[in-house]
Amino acid sequence: QIKACLFDLDGVIVDTAKYHYIAWKELASNLGFEFTEEDNERLKGVSRMTSLNILLEIGGITLSDEEKHRLAEKKNENYRTFILKMQPDEILDGAKEFLQELKAKGIKIALGSASKNAMTILERLELTELFEAIIDGTKVTEAKPNPEVFLKGAEALNVAPSECVVFEDAEAGVEAALAGNMKCVGIGSPDVLGKANLVIDGLHQMTYEKLMELN
Ligand code: G6P
Ligand code: MG
Prior knowledge:
It is built from ten helices and six strands. It is α/β, with parallel strands linked by helices. It is globular, with a radius of gyration of 17 Å. Residues 10-11, 20, 43-48, 51, 76, 113-117, 137 line the site of 6-O-phosphono-alpha-D-glucopyranose.
């Protein structure tokens, strides 16, 4: 019996990838190489430090841990100038409506995001109150595809993993949900998210009835 829904943030509720892209591209440019939109795809769902490691690998650059932390911090400051200006109209189509529908039906709602900026983003979008539990990058040690972020979400909601449905746009996130013994709805392309129980284009296609069909 489905009792709870756990949501990834970036790419499911809001498109932050475009801001991450601008900030990573600028960092690459400062380091003297090009960072493309295709490269940016590899960073979806991936933690900040892992993202930096991938970027440095693309640029063929090796740096000390100290230098890497400095650059990750610099990128994040740049990224935050964009998210601090976000508005509620940037919520992806249908996301808020679906969250409200779940709430009305008594389904519990949690966030499960790798981002350390999740709280800031939810505040800017005026969505914080809709979440009963928020598990973000400040609360986990293991990155997706490890299920930690979703298991902590289920625990905080006081439901069993088998009673949860996860909404994810990244392959690693789908894997994390399934590894946690949860059902998963993929948001995006079936080519990438084929392991999910259902794949849709966005939350505008989701309803309580479709959720119950996953039972
Ligand atoms: C999400 C995004 C990733 C991002 C990660 C960490 O998973 O999809 O692209 O790298 O969060 O975000 P942060 O805001 O902590 O840098
Ligand atoms: Mg995501």
